[in-house]
Amino acid sequence: MALPQVAARPADPGPAGPVRRRRRSWGGWRFVGPFMLVFALVFLAPIGYSIYLSLFRNRLIGGNSFVGLDNYTQALQDSQFWAAFGRVALFLVVQVPIMLFLALLVALAIDSGRLYGKAFFRVAIFLPYAVPAVVATLMWGFMYGSQFGLVGNINDALHVSLPDPLGASLVLTSIGNIVTWEFVGYNMLIFYSALRVVPSSLYESAEIDGAGQFRIITAIKLPAIRGALVIATIFSVIGSFQLFNEPAILRPLARNVLTTGYTPNMYAYSLSFSGQQYNYAATVAIIMGVITMIIAYVVQLRGTREI
Amino acid sequence: MTTAVRSSARTQKAAPGATRRPYRRNKRRSLTLTLLTALVAIYSLIPLVWLVINATKTQQGLLNSFGLWFADGQFALWDNIQQTLTYDNGVFVRWLGNTVLYVAVGAGGATALATVAGYGLAKFDFVGRRGVFAVVIGAVAVPGTALAVPTFLMFSKMGITNTPWSVIIPSLVSPFGLYLMWSFSASAIPDEMLEAARIDGAGEFRTFFRICVPLLAPGIVTVLLFSMVATWNNYFLPLIMLKDPQWYPLTIGLNSWNDQAATAGSQAVFNLVITGSLLTILPLLTAFLILQRYWQSGLAAGGVKE
Amino acid sequence: MSKFLKVAAAATAAMLALAACGGGNDDQTTGSSAGSAAGSEADVTAALAKGGSLTVWAWDTTIKDVVTGFEKKYPNVKINLVNAGTGDKQYTALQNAVAAGNGVPDVAQIEYYAVLQFALAKSLANISGYGASGLKSDFTPGPWNAVTPNGGVYGLPLDSGPMALFYNKEVFDKYGISVPATWTEYVEAARKLHKANPKVYITGDTGDAGFTTSMIWQAGGKPFTTDGTNVTINLADPGSSKYATTWQPMITEKLVASIPPWTDQWFKALGDGTIASLPTGAWMPSNLVSGAAAASGKWRVAPMPQWDAGSNASAENGGSSLGVLDKSANKALAYAFVKYASADEGKDIRIKGGAFPSTTADLSSSTFLSTPFPYFGGQKANEVFAKSAQSVVPGWSYLPFQVYANSIFNDTAGKAYVSSTTLADGLKAWQEQSAKYGTEQGFTVK
Questions:
Q1: Is A239's Cβ below 8 Å from some Cβ in B?
Q2: CB contact residues (below 8 A), chain A span 153-172, against chain B
Q3: Residue ending a domain, choose from C297, C331, C364
Q4: C437 and C343 in a common domain
Q5: Which pLDDT score, from 0 to 100, does residue A72 have?
Q6: pLDDT for residue A263 is more than 60
Q7: Spatial contact of B74 and B58, defined as CB atoms under 8 Å apart
Q8: What ipTM was assigned to the predicted interfaces of this complex?
Q9: pLDDT digit string (tens) for B41-88?
C-alpha cells in the first residue's frame, strides 16, 4: 500500500548517518502489540466468527446445519440487498462530494485570512461533530415534521406546502442533510489543519510571480492537502457504506419509506435481530465489507497516484 | 517538499509569530466571503439553537408552539433540567456517570494504545509492519453489524455482556487515532534524538516515556479528544450489549425516553429528551472549546500531511 | 497487498479454529410439540418458603408496584426488575440472551402476539403443572387463548385490549358527525369530516401490523393457522379481503392523517382535534391522559363499528402476559410471582395503576364497571370495554414467527400507504415475505 511508504520518507535524509532505523525484526511489536491484541479481539475474532457463521444456517425448526456457500449465493441474488446497496452507493456518490466540497470551501475560506472572526467560524462549524448521531437525528427529526415540526410551522406561516422531507422521494436527501451537517465541520478541520502546514515560502514566491488567489489555490493549496483529501474521502466512503444510525433512528417517523432493509447495515441488523437469521446477516455484512474494502482501496490508489 | 515542510514545522515551533505567513498582514478582509461562510455557520448552528430554545418548553409547550421560538411566557429551562436530573430516581445522572466512565477508560485507553502503537509503526521497522495498517484499515471497512452479533456472542461466552467491559473493550481500538499518531510520531520525533538516546543506553520504553511523549503531546490530546467524541456518542454497540438501564450511556438512555411514549400506560417525556440532549452535548462542547489550542496544532503538525 | 492477504489469511485461520471450538448458537429448538409441563403446585409453595431472587424483564409501568407488593408479602424473595426495552426491543434482547445461553431472566413480559413464537422456540416454560391450567375461568377468552397454544400454558395474562372506538365528541358535534355503527358508516363519516375541514381527519393510520391484524380479527378473518410445523398464511381470506376493500378508500381518498403514531406529533394531533377518533384497545385511556391532556373531557368511548350491521363482534388489540423462561433456574418461584402479578393481589395493584384487566371477575364487578373517567367527561367507559371483551371473535391465532412478520409489515403492506399499491396487494406482499421466512426457518408453509 502506498501509505506506509509515504510515512517512511520523512526519515530519509537524516544527517546523523546511515542507520536511520533499528534493524530489529520484532522490537516494534512491543509497542504495537497491545493495540493489535485488543484489535484482534475486537475486530479479527468477530470477523473470523462471522465468516464461520456465514457458512451455516440455523433455523427455528431444524437447528444448525452447514450449508457451505449457499448463503452467499442467496445474498448475491437477493433483490432487497442490492436495492439497499444501490441506495448507499447513490448516497455515496452524491453526499460525499457535496460534503467534502463544502468542507473544502470553508477550509479555504478560513485559511485565506480574509474572514472576519475566523476563530468563531472554525468552532461554530465544527460543533455539530460533537453532537451524538442520536441527538442530531432526533433534532432534525423534530424539525422535519411536516405537521407540527419546523416544516409544518413554515407551511402554516407562509401558506405553502413544502414537500415532505420524510416522504419517499426526499428521505434519502434528508438523511444526507443530517450526515452532511454532522461531518462537514470535522472534514473542514482536517483540511484546514493540512492547509496550515503549507510553508509560507511557497505563497511568497507565488505572490512574487503575480499569481492570483485562484491560481494559488489550485497550484499550491490543493496539491498540498492531497493526503488529507484522500483520507477524508476514504473515511467518508466507508462511513457511507455503513450508513445505519441516522435512518434507523428516523425509522419510527417514516416506517413505510425507511424499510427494515433500507441500507445494507440496517438489513443485516434486522436479519440478525428481528429475524434471528444470524448466519445470513453475517453473509450480507461480509459481502458489504469486501465491497467497501475494494472501493476504499481504489480510492486510495487513485488519490495518491494522481499528480 | 517533505523536508521543507518538516523544517518549516520546526521553525514554526521555534519562533511562532515571526515566520508565519508575513504576507498575510496586508490581506484585505472580505465581507462577501464572511457572509457566505456565515451561511454555513448558521446551517451548523440552527439545530443547536433549536435545541436550546425548545429545552425551555414544557411537554405541553412543545406541542403548542412554533419550533424556532419560545413558547408564550414560558421559560421552563431550570424546571426541565431539574426534572431531567431527578426523573425515574435520577437515572439520568447515573447515565451521565456511566458515560464518563466509558469515556475515561475507553477513550483514555484508546489514546494510550494508539499512541504507543503509532510510535511503534513510525519508528521501528519490524516484521509485518506493512501489513498492520492494511489490516487495520481493512477491518474498519467491515460493517459494524457484521461484528455486532459475533462480538455479542463472543462476549456472552466470556460473560461480560451487560457489563461496562462490553462497551469499553471495543472502544479501545481507534484506527483513526492509530493513523494520526503514526503520522505525528513520524514527523515530530527526530530519529537523531532517538539515536542519541540509544547510544546513551536508555531502554526503549524509557526513551518513549521520557522523551517522545512530551513531544507527542498535541497529537495525544487530539486523539484523546476525538476518541472522547466517539465513545461519548457511541450508540450501536451499547444498544446490543447492554440490557440493564443502570448501565446505559446517555445516548441509549435518551433514546429509551424517546421510545417511552410508545407504550400503553406510560408517559410522554419529550421535553426531557430535549433537555437531556442539551445536557448531553454540553460537556463535549466545553472540552473542545477549552482545549482548542491543543487539538488544532495536533491536527496541523501531525495527522494530515500527504 | 499480498502481505495483507497473508496476514488476513493467518488471522482468519486462527480465528476460525478458535470459533470452531467455541461452537455456534446451535441450541435452538427442534420439533413442535408443547414442552412437557414440569413441576407441581407443591414445588411452588416450597419455593416461596425457601425464598431466593428473581430477575423480571417488564416495561409496563404498573409492574413496579406489583414487585413492591410481592416483596412485602414474601420478604425472603428479592426481585430485580429490569426494563430491557419496549415490545420488540425486549424480544430481541430476550432472543439474544437465549441464543447466548447467558443473561436470561426468570420472568418476562410477552405481548400476546409473541407468545406463540417464544413458546414454539421453547424459550417459555410450560407452567400448567404449577397449577396454571386451573386458572382458565379467571380470564377472558381472548387473552387466555393467546397464552395457551398447543395445549400448554405459557404465561398468565396481565392486561387485555378489547377494542373500542375512542372519539373526540367536541369535533364530532362541531361537524355534525354521528357515532358510526358500521365501518361503511365510518368511511362515510370520514369523508364528511374531511370535506368540512381538510385539516381534520377521522383517524390517523400509517400502517400498523397490530391494528391491521385486529381489524381482520374483528371482521372474522383467520389468516394465520398453525398446526405443529405446518403453517398457513392467507391474507386474502374473506375477513382480510373485507378489511382491505372497506379500508382502501380511507387511504386512496386521503381520509387518514399520515402522522406516525406514538410520536409527539401524534399526541399533539390527538390533543387539538386534528385526529378525531381512534379505534384501539382498552389500555388507551392512560396514554390519552398523559399525552393528550389538552383534550381532557372532550373524548368519549363507543363500541367498535361493525362489519355487518347489527352484529356484535370485537377483537383484541395488544395486551401482554407474563411468562416464565425455560432457562430460569428457579421456575417454581418465578411462577409464584407470575401468578401473584396476574391473578392474585398483583392484579388489583395494576388495575389501580391504570391497567385494563383481563380477569372475568374484575370485568364484571360493579365497582369496576361504574368507574367514571374524567377524561371522557365522566363516562363509565369500562362498561363499553367489558362488553367488548365478551364479544371478541373466537378462534384467532398468530404466527409462530409473528414478531418477525410484524417487523416487516411496513416494508410490505406499508407500501400501500405511500404508493399506488392497493391494500390488498400490500397484504399479499406481506403474506409472501412472511411465507418465505417461514419456509427458510423450516416450517411447511401453505
A1: no
A2: 153, 157
A3: C364
A4: no
A5: 93
A6: yes
A7: yes
A8: 0.78
A9: 999 998 888 888 888 887 777 766 666 677 666 777 888 888 888 887
Identify the segments of chain C with pLDDT beneath 70. 1-38
Residue C149, domain CATH? 3.40.190.10
- Fold classified for B92-306: MetI-like fold (1.10.3720)
Collect all residues of chain C within an 8 Å Cβ-Cβ radius of residue A51: 12, 15-16
Q: How confident is the model at residue B15 (pLDDT cuts 50, 70, 90)?
A: very low
Chain C nearest CA to A254, separation (Å): 7
Q: Taking CB atoms and an 8 Å cut-off, how many pairs form between chains A and C?
A: 130
**pLDDT confidence of residue A114:** 80
- Which residues form the domain of C275? 163-315+377-445
Domain boundary among C296, C330, C364: C364
Q: Is C103–B264 a contact, with Cβ atoms under 8 angstroms apart? A: no
Are residues C204 and C254 located together in one domain of the fold?
yes
Q: 10 Å Cβ neighbour count for C275? A: 26
d(CA A137, CA A128): 11
pLDDT at A211: 79
pLDDT of A223 reads 83
Domain A78-305: top CATH class = mainly alpha
Rounded distance, CA A294 to CA A234, Å? 11
Q: Are C169 and C256 members of one domain?
A: yes
Q: Is residue C45 part of a domain?
A: yes
Do C105 and C216 lie in one domain? The reply is no
User: C268 and C170: one domain?
Assistant: yes
Helix and strand totals (H; E) in chain A: 16, 2
Task: Establish if B268 touches chain C: CB-CB under 8 angstroms.
Answer: yes
Alpha-carbon distance B127 to nearest alpha carbon in chain A (angstroms): 5
For C243, half-sphere exposure in the C-beta direction (CA atoms, 13 angstrom radius) is: 23
Rounded CA separation B240/B235 (Å): 9
Minimal C-alpha gap between B29 and chain A (Å): 4
Question: Which candidate, B111, A132, B265, A273, places its Cα nearest to that of C66?
Answer: B265
Q: In this structure, are C299 and C328 located in the same domain?
A: no
Mean pLDDT, range A159-176, rounded to an integer = 85
| Separation CA B291–CA B225 (nearest Å) | 9
pLDDT of residue B151: 85
Pairwise CB contact (< 8 Å): A106 & B50: no
Please report whether residue C28 resides in a domain: no
C413 and C278 both lie in a single domain: yes
| Helices and strands: H and E segment counts in chain C | 21, 13
**Chain A residue whose CA is closest to C426:** A256
pTM score of the predicted model: 0.82
Report CB contact under 8 Å: A168, C414: no
